[in-house]
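Example with several molecule types.
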Amino acid sequence: MAKHSANARHARDGNRPNKPGAGDTDSTSAGSEGFAGGLASVGGHLADRRRFLGYLLAAPTVVAAAQLGGSLLGSQSAGAAQPVPSNPQVADNYDLSDAIYDAAKPTSDLITVQVHSDGTVSHEMVRTEVGQGVQTAIAMLIAEEMDIPIEKVNVTHAPARPELVWNQLTGGSTAIGSQFTPVRVAAAIAKGRLLDAAAAKWDLAKSELTAHAGRVLRPSGQALSFGELAEAAAVTENKKVSTELKPDSDFKVIGKPQRRVDAMDIVTGQKEFATDMEMPDALPTMVCRPPTINGTVKSVNNADEVQNMPGVTDVATITTGVAVRAKTFGQCVDAIHALDVSWNGGPVEGTSDTSIEKELKDAHPPWVIPGTPGTKAFEREYTFAFTNNAPLEPATAIADVKEDSAEIWAAAKLPITAQGEIASLLGLPATAVTFNVVGSGGSFGRRLFNDGPLDAAEASQKMGKPVRLMWHRADEYRHGRGRPMQVSKIRAFHDGEVVHSLENRYTSVFTDFGHGFGDLMAQYYTSVNPDTPLATNPGSALALSQTIFELTAVWPYSMGPTKQLLMEVRQPTESTGTEHNLTTFNTTAMRQVYNPNVVAAQELFVDELANEMGRDRYEFRREFAKDDKFREVIEKVAEAGNWGRSLPDGVAQGIGVHEEYKQHAACLVEVDCRPETVNRKIPGGTTGPRVLRVVFVSTVARHLVNPLGAEAQLQGGIMDGISLAQTNSLHLKDGAFLEGSYDDFRYTRQWNVPTDVQVILLPEDSEAEVGGFGEVGVAPTCAAVACAIGAARGSYPNYLPISHNAGIPFEVKPHDPPIPQSPTNGLEHYPAPAKASEETSLNP
Amino acid sequence: MPEHSFTVNGRQVTVDIEDDVRMLWVLRDVLGVTGPKYGCGINVCKACTSHYNGRAFNPCSVPVSKIGPDDEITTIEGLADTAPGEDLHPMQEAWLEHDVAQCGYCQPGQIMAAVDLVKKVHAEGRDLTDADIDTNMRNVCRCGTYYRIRQAMKDGAERMKGMKKGG
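Resulting C-alpha cells for the full complex:
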C-alpha cells in the first residue's frame, strides 16, 4: 500500500482543543455556514459550537432531514510578494467547488436519514456513485454521527428529484464536500430523536443516555437497539428541531481508512449496473450510428429484411441513428451489420486534426501585456489532442415508455436534467417521467450527458416496448464525449533574474457543459463576481465556458501581471438543450475539465523557461511559488522524490504543480526514455517511455473523510495523467474519429503502470472544511510526465500525448458498418487478441 | 433453434440459441449471468474474462457452438466455489484486503484474469513478477486501479499457494 500520512493527521486532530466552549483559535475563516430560522448561530467553524436546524418528518419510523442556507464567502488571502507578485486570480478565493456548494445549500433540508425497525439506517443519496466512493463516504458520515456500525447503513441512489433544483449534481469533486454537513445534521437529528424515545421509555433524562454501536445505553448498562426505538421515535407531524454535531475530536469513523461498502458485491459479480438489472421484457437494443460525427439518417433501405433476422424484434429510426432490438446484444450487432442505411453528413464533415488545430491557432486573441524595457519575451505553444471519457461501462439505460408515462433506469450525474430532457423528447410532462439513478461503471464526465437514456427513451417510445439499450465501444469513441482539442499559447517577459509578466491564451473547441449547468453558474456565481463573463454576457455559451475556466485556472507562480484567457471555436449555433441537438463535436467536462491540458502547458513552459534562464527546474518553482502552500507541496515532493538524484542518461525527473478543489498538489515522476525501454514490445500495445516512479503530494482540507478512498482517487488520477501525456487520444480524419477499441485509444494499461506510486497527504489547518480528490491527481501528473520526458530527451514536447503524431499503430475499423463484429477465435487467443499477436506497436 | 448444453458455475444448462451467438450474450442475455461485463466485444478490454475448463478466455469472442456438453464455464459468480471451503477465492480476499475496486465494472474480469495468470506461473514453478503482469494483464481499468491490482495480485498469489486444489 502506498504510504500516506493519515496517522499523523489523526494524532494531530486528537490534540485539538475540544472542551465545550474552548475556542479554536487557529480558525481563520469567518462564518463559513449561514443559518436560517433564528436559532443560535455563531461565527467560526468549530462544529461543537454550532447548532444546526433540521426536521423530523412524519413517518412510521424516525426520519430526519437537515437544513442549511445562507451564503458562503471565503476569506481573502493576500498573494505572496516575491519575486514579482502576480495579481490575484478569481479561483484563488472562490472556485468552481464554491459555486456548486452554494447551489446545494438552499435545498439541503430535503435530504433525509431514516431509521428502520430492523436496526438499519437508510439514506437515499443525491449524488451518484461513479466509482469515486461517495456511497462509502456518505455511509461513513452517517455511521459517525449516529454511532452505528457502517454495515448497518444502507446508502442508495435517490431517483431524480426536481425539487432539489441544483442539489442533485455530481461533479467538480464536490460530492463529499457538499454532503458533509447536511447528511451529518440529518443523522444527528435522527440519533437525538432515538435518545428522546429511549429517555421517555425509561423515564430518564436524555443527558444520562449514550449511543453506541447502534444501541442506546442507560447508566445501568441496559440497552435498547435503534431498531427497537425506531417506531417510538417517529413523529406524526413534521417538526423543526435543532441539533449539535459531534465534535471533530470524537471522530471514530471520519478520517479513518474505510474499505468500500460495495467491495464484496463487486468481487463476487453481484454489483448491478444498468444493463445487469433483471427486467425480462427490456430486450437488448443498440443503435446503428452514422459514419461521421452527428450525421443523420436519410433512409433505411432494408428495415423489413433486418426485422426478420434471428432474434430481432424491432427496427426503428431515432434521432441518433437506427435502433435495433433483439433477444441478445450479439444479434443487435448482426442486425447493425445487415442494415443498409443512407446517411446525411454531419456538421463537422471534412474536418481533421490539422484543420481543427489551425482553427484553434488562428483564434488566439492578441497578447495584451507589453514587454517592459530590459526584458525578453519567451513564448511557447502546445497542442492537446481530442480525447474521450471512455468509462468502461458504455452509455446504457433501461427504458419503459408507455403512452402517458415513462420509467428509466440509468446512471446520471444530473438526474433532474435527464428527467427533463427525456420528458421533452417524449412529449410528456416531467412529472410523468420517473428517472431511477443507477451507479455507473465509471464516468470521468461522461454521465453529465444523458445520451444513453435519451436513445433508450426514444427507442422504447417508437417501438412501444421496454428496451435495454447499450452503446457499442466503437460508438463511444466515435460518437461519445470527451475533452476536445485545445491549444495553449504562453508568453512571459523576463530579465534573466525574474519574470515580469505572464500571459496564457488558451483556445479550445467548444466544451459542452450541458443543459442546466449554466443556469446554476448564473444564479450562484454571477452575484459573487459581477464582472465575470457570464454576468456581463448572460446566456452565452462562450461566457459560461470562460467563467468555468476562470473558476479553475490558477497560475501557481509569481510572475508579475498574470492573465489567462479562454477562447473557443466551433460553438453550437443554438443551445444544446432539450432538443437532443448537437451541432458540433460531442464534448463534455472530462475529469478535471481544462486543467490536465492547462497545467501540462504551464509546467512544460515553466521547465523551458527555467532552462532558458539557466535555473534548476525545482529551485525555480520553489522560488517563484505564489504562496507558502504551493512552496510547501513543491518542497515536500522534491524531498520525498529525492529531486536531482543521480539517474542514468535517458531517465529524468519532472514536477507538476496545481491547486484545485481546495487542495494544493505537486507530483514528481521519474520517466525512463532509454531506447530499450521505449521500444519494448507488447503485442498490439503502445509502450513508449515508462514512468518508473510517482510521488504525489497533496494538502488536505480540515476534514479528510476517507484517506483510503482519497488515495485511491489520486492513484487513479495518476494513471489518467500518464495516459494523457503519453498515449491516450483520438485521431480526427474526414469528420470522424479513427479509434474503435481500447487497443486503438490507448488508455494506460499495466505495461505502462509505474511499480512505485507514493501518495502523501499533508494535514493542513485549511480554511476549507472538506476538499475533493476525484480529479486533482490528473493534471499535476500529466504535467510532470510531460516535463520528465522533455528533460530526458533534451527536447520538450509541444503536442500531447507524445504518441499522437507518431502514426496510426492500428488497423482502422470501418465506419460503415459503424461497429466491428465480434471475433470467433477467442479460445485460441488469450490474452492478446488475434490481430495483436503480431508486433504492431509503434512508439513515439 | 439449436440447443447447446454445457456447465456454468457447476450447473448444467441447455440454451436454445443460434450457433453464432457469442458466449458473453448467452451468459448475460439468455442465462442472466451478469458478472462478466461488456466493454468492447472484440477481445480487447478483457472485462468479460471468465474461465473455460479452468483457463481464462473472453466469452465475447467465442460462439456458443464452440462450447460442448463436457465444457465447464466459470464466471466470477462461481469462482469462490473453485476454492476449498466456504470462503471466497483467495484472489477475491486479496482484492478486498487491498480495497482495489473503484467503479467495479472491470474487476470481475481482472480477478478472473489474475487467477489464471497466477495458476500459470505457479504451474511453471515460479513466483509472479511485475513482468508477468506487464505482459499478460491486458484488462483495462479506466478508473486506473492498476497499482492496487498489482498489490492484490502479489498478495493473492501468495494466498493461492495455500490452496489444496486448483482454483
